[in-house]
Every structure is written in C-alpha cells, then in structure tokens.
Amino acid sequence: MFAKLFKHEAREMGWQLLLYLVLGLAVVFASGLLSLTNLSFLSVTGTTLGTVVSIIIPFLVFITGSKYYYQTTYGQRGYFTNTLPVSSGIVLGTKSLWLFIAVLLSICWSCLALTWVIFTQMAGAAGAKLSFGDKFVAPWEAIGKLLQGAPVVLIVFIIVTLLLTAAQFVLWVVCFSALANRFGFAYLSTNKAVTISAILIYVVYEAVLALFTFLVPVTLHITSLAGDAKAKLLFGAILSRTNEGTGIFLPLGTLSMIPLLIIGYWFAHNSLSRHLSLR
C-alpha cells in the first residue's frame, strides 16, 4: 500500500514538478548562452534572468508542494487519502517522502543552475578574445576543476546540509498543516489558518534553535589540508571562531534541530491520526 500511495503522489504532483524543472532548465541554459556573448545588454539580461529563474523555481515547488500536501491531507482534495484503509503513519510517510524528494530536487536544481549562471558570466567577461565555442567549454572545465579540487569533507558537509534543509522544510509543512487543521475556523478560512500556523511554527522553531545555539557555545571546526581532514572543538563564544581561519564551523547547539524535527513529526502524526479517526 505504501508503494501504491507513493505512485499516486508521484502521478498527482510529479508532472508539475517535472514541468517546472524542465522549463526552468531551458531558460537558465539560454540565459547562460546570452552571458557568453559578452555584449553588455545581452550579458546583463542573461545573468539577471538566469539568477531570478534559479531562485523562483524552488519557491514555486515549495508553494505548490505545501498547498498540495494540505489540500490532499486535510482539505477538499483529501477524499482519496481519508478513505484509504491504511494507517496514518503510512499516509504521512508517503506524503512526507514525496515532498522531501520534490524539495531536495528543486534545491539541488537551483544550486546547479546558479553555478551555471555564475560561471558563464565569468567566462563571458574574461574571454573577450575567445570564440563562442571556447567560452561555452570554459564553464564546464571550471566546474570540473572545482569538483575535483573540493575536499571530501566539504562535499559530505554540502550533502548533509542539503538533506537537512529539505527535511526541515518538510517537517515545517507537515507541522503547520496539522496545526492549521486544529483551528476551529480552518474550514471557513483555510488560507488564514494556514498562514497563522505557518508563522507560529516558524517563529517557535527558529527561537528554540537560536536559544540552544547560544546556550551551547561549542563549535566543531573541520579543516582539510592535502586531503586529510582534521576536527577540533572550539569552546567559548561562537564568534571567536573567526580567529581560526578557514574551514567548516558547526555550532553544536544547532544539533537541537534533530529532536525538534522528531517532535514535529510526532505532532503531525498525532494530528493526522486524530483527523483520520474523525473521518
């Protein structure tokens, strides 16, 4: 049943996600070609257009994904979900997993798109005497060198950051959707209930995260030299890390996001169980 429900989620929202990413990819790729011309108007237009589209596409996925989740779980489009002979855990798991995949894909797409925009702009500006073909090859070579020279610890850190970012967004969506459904006026004014609950959940999450970050003034400092990664703990004020030079700094207080995410998922599961039992 988990696989069937997941396929249903993919059919319902997958085509829309694919459309956003493909159209955005076409626009960003074309904008990069404009940047390679090194003509003032076309170059500025291409860079601006590519940057704007690279940022807008993830937000479109975030908004449509959030709206789809609430409507198909608690809203008017929830008949299929609410009448399935499955537990709330399966319903929440499939919907959360699909939303996580969609958000993660859109974030990765945005990072790659912005990388393409930046490197094409640099190639267009630096290669005034080069042919258009050489300028087109230059960004790919620069990106390849960047990936080859990146330390493994940095790549792992980026991957973990992307996964946690997508997970935080998904938990935020399922939590504020669950809270909005508990408001007595949710059926009369859905947008109002969702907006209020989204702001409340966001403020509480950021406040608790900031509190623990400063209550635990310990930072993990990771450096990589000649392929060897070294880690050490920095005690004292978080801002003292500026005296340690370059590297990756991870305030250990931010690890409080993990229990926060667990509590948020429990709250969403409890609310969905209550909602399905009433149905």
Topology:
Blueprint: H1 2-36, H2 40-73, H3 79-82, H4 88-126, H5 132-149, H6 152-182, H7 190-215, E1 218-225, E2 228-235, E3 248-251, H8 257-278
Antiparallel strand pairs: 1-2, 1-3
Keywords: Membrane, Transmembrane, Transmembrane helix
Transmembrane segments: 40-63, 97-119, 152-181, 193-216, 248-268
Organism: Mobiluncus curtisii (strain ATCC 43063 / DSM 2711 / V125)
Task: Please provide a written account of the structure.
With 279 residues, this protein is mainly α. It has two domains: 1-149; 151-279, no CATH class. The protein is built from eight helices and three strands, in the order αααααααβββα. It has helices at residues 2-36, 40-73, 79-82, 88-126, 132-149, 152-182, 190-215, 257-278, and strands spanning 218-225, 228-235, 248-251. Strands 2-1-3 form a three-stranded antiparallel sheet, covered by helices on one side. The chain is globular. The chain crosses the membrane at residues 40-63, 97-119, 152-181, 193-216, 248-268. This is ABC-2 family transporter protein.
